[in-house]
Design the sequence.
């Protein structure tokens, strides 16, 4: 009986020691929310500003602030790390198509019938 208890104890100790450290927790789910320094070209001008995206209960809203004013951002769609949304400024409809990676994003901004250009952002 002593041998059985001794053997069982050794097996349990060996099993406990061989399990290793617990697996790290999974990364948090992706969210485009944050405050970003942005730069884009619109109508031949290089424009920089701040883009803020907020999340509440899985829905998003945001704004871009530049020297030309503020633009409210709406109609967010998130597919993995690809994010699309829209806005309007004066008489121009804006459409954004971004791909997030690292601490920022890169993508395209379309300005009504005026064409499109590259947009980049870095999270603050």
Sequence:
């Amino acid at each position: 009986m002593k041998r059985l208890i001794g053997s069982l104890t050794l097996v349990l100790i060996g099993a406990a020691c061989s399990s290793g450290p617990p697996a790290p927790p999974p990364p948090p789910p992706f969210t485009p929310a944050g405050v970003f320094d942005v730069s884009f070209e619109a109508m031949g001008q290089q424009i920089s500003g701040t883009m803020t995206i907020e999340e509440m209960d899985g829905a998003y809203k945001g704004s871009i602030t530049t020297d030309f004013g503020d633009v409210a951002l709406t109609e967010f769609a998130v597919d993995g790390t690809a994010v699309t949304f829209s806005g309007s400024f004066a008489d121009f409809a804006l459409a954004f198509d971004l791909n997030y990676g690292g601490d920022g994003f890169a993508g395209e901004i379309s300005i009504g019938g005026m064409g499109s250009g590259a947009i980049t952002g870095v999270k603050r």
